[in-house]
Amino acid sequence: MSKPTEFxxxxxxxxxxxxxxxxxxxxxxxxxxxxIYDAEIKLPMGDLVEDLxxxxxxxxxxxxxxxxxxxxxxxxxxxxxxxxxxxVTHASAMLTRSGTKKDNGFLYMHYSNERAFIAxxxxxxxxxxxxxFRELICREQQTMGGLVSAMEKQGYRLETDGAMKRNxxxxxxxxxxxxxxxxxxxxxxxxxxxxxxxxxxPELAKRMVKLAEKALPFLDFGWRAIGSVRDEPQA
Length: 235
Description:
alpha+beta; BirA Bifunctional Protein, domain 2; 5-stranded antiparallel beta sheet; 8 helices
């Protein structure tokens, strides 16, 4: 029987590497220093995802991932961007029901010199799925309020950056201030800002398991909404 994967923290030199990468945006420097990236960032991030998958499965929380599919690449997609820097200067990973980053309803981590945080929720919903989410919020305002209140009592913040200034199309008649705040959100994500010291310790995995546990009722709420407009249920 194989030994369970255990996350022990990002490397102590990880943030120094990411800062240096910001100054050395060229392939020659990156490949000369790739061993540092692999040891300080990529390897522990893979350990984190697989450690979390095992812990969440034991708690019957339907989120999973692995080091092949759940880690965001250090290489930037510059095809449609004015910024042609070839590398990102943060590390990030996502766990979902399917184990792929294309699914929605997630547990996420972001680690950089600028900010370090964990998050859970729904990001980038579009079209019918976003409409269905907003409609469910309006139909079940009390349920949504209870979910938000429960998360806030645990210290998690509903991200409001990027919210619309007016009600979206189809929701023009919503005049309740609380509902307006929720339907104007483009993303429905709860976050917790953490220190670099937590990211560099086993505590990060514990914090992410706790967030997943507390956010599961909200994730179930969102999955119910988007599942109503999908042809097939998600795995």
